[in-house]
């Protein structure tokens, strides 16, 4: 294995912006002389709030409160609050909603004062020509009509993973609630009753992601992949305002309602009195009318202050759909989504087992893979394990690619197949050099080959390596090979994982070439990163 060159500062900055590393959204110095008493507010937040960085820097200058944002996914954030780790590291949370958290045992007791800062409904955005063809630029369709059109193949869309991102979570809850037609909160029997319609709706989903930002960026790079997105209204309006698309999106507001993100900035009950003072100063500033208008203009979210008139880009607020009243109903809905309703995934894990992986690194890899077979009993772990109907291929490599081992989980009772994956992971041994590009070529050949009687899957490749490629094909020869491949192959993203002394340049270039993303397992555990990647599969 070749030792890596010094780490590039710009890579850390890019990864931080993607929500993998903790970032400081606030300014750390230079407060004016008349600012109030300085303080720091540490906030666990949803990654979509990175666009508030300029406003939070201005808040620091005005109030003296330095805001530090650490990002987490939907269920991971809930787990951190319930488990107490959030209270040990943070003073407050700022997610798009607290609804699910307050349904969990002890959830409400972990929370202190809460102030809603802005809002954004989760809606459907379709390219203008598609919306016009369907007549949805003239009338508001119901979710039942949208689901019927999706099932009939009249449009396709991208949506985020409900276990990783609140936009996908809200969309799942909203569509299910609307299709139930009862006007009441969802329960288990209702979910079973509307499952056929839900499955029809999700047949049109052709693009998935772990974050709203990555989803919109991926769509903007290649709008031909799908006809539109299910996402926050703010994301859709932002894409149009940025003029990043060859054809603008028509925002479709379902007539029977939506689930709206209301972004409550919430002090944790464990926060100190000093943090409480900083919280009051910050929320007071963010609710000022001039700041509310600035948030609206810069982030395309609706103002929380009812005295601030929404801009012309905002349509009338759709009705609010009921949120489930029980945590077990939400859990049942998420379980059904992954195991019965959505398209199953196909993932090829390309795993470095070269000599440098010997010892603790190989043990870390085995632990990370084992966690995905159901060994992780946390809330997030429950929904981030390998799902029913999923196809998983493990392709270890060193001097040359190893033999790929493919497992297809059955539609029910997957325990035996999960045990086989665990057994394969535990049998891995280290030794040899590092042939990254030869192994990637083989991974692509596996990924495009139909298996298990079902070729229509969310397909991706995960590449984990702790070093630089030093055997087999070169970067240039791989790029030439890739350029000659068909479009079907080129739409398979490669999610690269930095580990040990990874060659940052090689790994980031591969992710960019394949429209994937780079994850950093040098500053956090490989298990955490593998779970995060699950949102993109």
The geometry reads as: globular
The secondary-structure class comes to: alpha/beta
User: How many DSSP E strands?
Assistant: 18
The biggest sheet, with number of strands, parallel, antiparallel or mixed sense and barrel status, is: 6 strands, mixed
**What gyration radius follows from the Cα positions, in whole Å?**
23 Å
Question: What's the total helix number?
Answer: 22
Q: Give start-end ranges of low-pLDDT stretches.
A: 1-36
How much helix is in the residues?
A: 40-55%
Spatial sequence of strands, sheet with the most strands:
15-14-13-16-17-18
Mean pLDDT: 90
Beta-strand content bin? 15-25%
Termini Cα gap: 29 Å
Model description:
The structure is a single chain. Helix 2 crosses helix 12. The chain has 22 helices and 18 strands. The strands form four sheets. Strands 15-14-13-16-17-18 form a six-stranded mixed beta sheet, sandwiched between helices. The chain has a five-stranded mixed beta sheet with strand order 2-1-3-11-4. Strands 5, 8, 9, 10 and 12 form a five-stranded antiparallel beta sheet that branches. Strand 17, helix 21 (504-513) and strand 18 form a beta-alpha-beta unit. The protein has helices at residues 9-17, 53-63, 74-83, 85-89, 99-103, 128-134, 143-151, 166-180, 188-202, 212-221, 233-242, 273-286, 289-299, 327-341, 360-375, 379-384, 415-426, 436-447, 475-483, 487-490, 504-513, 526-533, and strands at 39-45, 65-71, 92-94, 111-116, 118-127, 157-160, 205-209, 228-232, 249-252, 260-261, 264-268, 302-303, 345-352, 391-397, 405-408, 458-465, 494-498, 517-520. With 537 residues, the chain is an alpha/beta fold.
């Amino acid at each position: 294995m070749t030792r890596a060159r010094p780490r590039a500062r710009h890579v850390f900055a890019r990864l931080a912006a993607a929500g993998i590393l903790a970032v400081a959204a606030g300014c750390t110095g230079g407060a004016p002389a008349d600012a109030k008493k300085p303080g720091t507010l540490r906030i666990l937040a949803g990654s979509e709030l990175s666009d508030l960085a300029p406003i939070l820097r201005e808040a620091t200058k005005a109030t003296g409160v330095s805001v530090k944002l650490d990002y987490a996914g939907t269920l991971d954030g809930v787990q951190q609050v319930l488990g107490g780790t959030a209270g040990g590291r943070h003073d407050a949370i700022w997610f798009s909603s607290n609804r699910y958290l307050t349904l969990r045992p002890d959830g409400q007791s972990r929370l202190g004062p809460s102030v809603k800062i802005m809002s954004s409904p989760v809606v459907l955005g379709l390219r203008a020509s598609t919306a016009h063809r369907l007549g949805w630029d003239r009338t508001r369709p119901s979710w039942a009509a949208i689901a019927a059109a999706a099932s009939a193949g009249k449009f396709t869309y991208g949506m985020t993973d409900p276990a990783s991102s609140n936009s996908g979570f809200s969309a799942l809850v909203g569509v299910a609630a609307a299709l139930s037609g009862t006007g009441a909160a969802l329960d288990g029997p209702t979910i079973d009753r509307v499952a056929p319609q839900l499955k029809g709706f999700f047949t049109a989903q052709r693009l998935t992601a772990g974050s709203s930002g990555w989803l919109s960026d991926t769509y903007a790079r290649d709008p031909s992949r799908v006809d539109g997105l299910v996402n926050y209204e703010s994301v859709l309006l932002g894409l149009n305002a940025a003029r990043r698309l060859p054809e603008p999106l028509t925002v479709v507001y379902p007539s029977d309602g939506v689930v709206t993100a209301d972004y409550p900035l919430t002090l944790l009950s464990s926060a100190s009195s000093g943090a409480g003072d900083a919280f009051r100063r910050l929320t007071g500033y963010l609710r000022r009318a001039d700041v509310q208008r600035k948030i609206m203009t810069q982030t395309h979210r609706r103002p929380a202050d009812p005295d601030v008139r929404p801009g012309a880009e905002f349509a009338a607020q759709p009705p609010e759909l009921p949120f489930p009243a029980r945590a077990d109903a939400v859990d049942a809905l998420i379980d059904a989504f992954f195991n019965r309703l959505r398209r199953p995934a196909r993932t090829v894990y390309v795993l470095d087992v070269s000599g440098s992986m010997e010892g603790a690194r190989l043990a870390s890899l085995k632990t990370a893979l084992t966690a995905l077979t159901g060994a992780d009993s946390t809330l997030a772990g429950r929904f981030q394990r390998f799902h029913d109907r999923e196809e998983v291929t493990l392709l270890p490599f060193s001097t040359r690619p190893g033999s790929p081992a493919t497992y297809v989980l059955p539609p029910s009772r997957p325990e035996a197949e999960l045990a086989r994956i665990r057994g394969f992971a535990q049998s891995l041994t280290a030794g040899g050099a590092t042939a990254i590009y030869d192994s990637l070529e083989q991974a692509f050949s596996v990924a495009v080959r139909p298996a298990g009687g079902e070729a229509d899957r969310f397909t991706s490749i995960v590449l984990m390596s702790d070093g630089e490629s030093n055997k087999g094909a070169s970067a240039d020869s791989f790029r030439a090979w890739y350029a000659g491949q068909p479009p079907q192959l080129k739409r398979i993203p490669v999610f690269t994982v930095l580990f040990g002394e990874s060659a940052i340049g090689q790994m980031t270039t591969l992710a960019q070439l394949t429209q994937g993303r780079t994850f950093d397992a040098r500053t956090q555990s490989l298990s955490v990163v593998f779970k995060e990647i699950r949102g993109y599969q």
